[in-house]
Amino acid sequence: MNKEQKAAQVEEIAAQIKDAEAVFAVDYRGISVPQAAELREKLTEAGARFRIVKNTLTERAAEQAGANELKELLEGPTAFTFVAGDGDVALAAKALSQFRREHAILEPKGGRMAGEPISIEQILELARLPARDMLHAQLVGVVASPITGLVRGLNQLIAGFAQQLQQIVDQGIVEGEAPEAPAEAAPAGEGETEPPAEAPTEADEAAAPEEGSEQADETEAPSEGDQEKEG
């Protein structure tokens, strides 16, 4: 590689650093060509690119891009994963983490995200986050849940109203057969009627025959004056 080619490569790497949403540095020792191809395919799905470049060129590119924190990671064989602005940072970190577990290689060193340095622990935390599509689905679920609750509540209200209408129809109220209302009390002084006769008591019933017999005796027995007149 001549001087002009090296300069062009430095320019290209510097542009990738500037445009990337995140940059992950890993130790690529032990990776084979087929494994590297497999990793690149997985990272492409996340909108990321895996690249192995000489440390000297990467150092110059990092300095040119104003990312001096990356220069501190250039100890030993170092490869970079560049996540584009429209890529999925969590999915890219997840792909690196899964590849590391499966092949026991590709130890993370650190990186850069949103213009700030990130540690190995932070990269591992990013790998535990849900992918962007899953986050979107969860967000849609959260936004839609109040609407779903409102629709469910309206459906229950309508169902209850329909049941009440059916009960009204069953009772015949719709056809004008309204239930009788309780009679209102008449105002004082209006519509007064005589109270019903009280039922005779046992004492009255016992006394009634005696009074009748005395009246009968008085009627049948003539007085002394009547006897004198007749005489």
Please bin the fraction of helical residues: 55-70%
Spatial sequence of strands, sheet with the most strands: 2-3-1-4-5
Give the biggest sheet. 5 strands, antiparallel
Identify low-pLDDT runs. 138-144, 181-193, 203-231
CATH architecture of one domain: 2-Layer Sandwich
How much of the sequence lies in strands comes to 5-15%
User: What is the total tally of β strands?
Assistant: 5
**Secondary-structure element sequence?**
HEHEHHEHEEHHHH
User: Multimeric state of these chains?
Assistant: single chain
Please report the first level of CATH classification, the CATH class of one domain.
Alpha Beta
Mean pLDDT: 75
What is the fourth-level CATH superfamily of one domain? Answer: Ribosomal protein L10, N-terminal RNA-binding domain
CA distance, first residue to last residue: 182 Å
Radius of gyration over all CA atoms, rounded: 53 Å
Helix vs. strand class: alpha+beta
Q: Looking at the structure, what is the overall shape?
A: elongated
- Could you name the CATH topology of one domain? Alpha-Beta Plaits
Q: Can you count the helices? A: 9
Could you explain the architecture of this structure?
The protein has 231 residues and is an alpha+beta fold. 58% of the residues lie in helices and 12% in strands. It contains nine helices and five strands; from the N terminus they run H-E-H-E-H-H-E-H-E-E-H-H-H-H. Strands 2-3-1-4-5 form a five-stranded antiparallel sheet. Helix 1 (3-19) crosses helix 3.
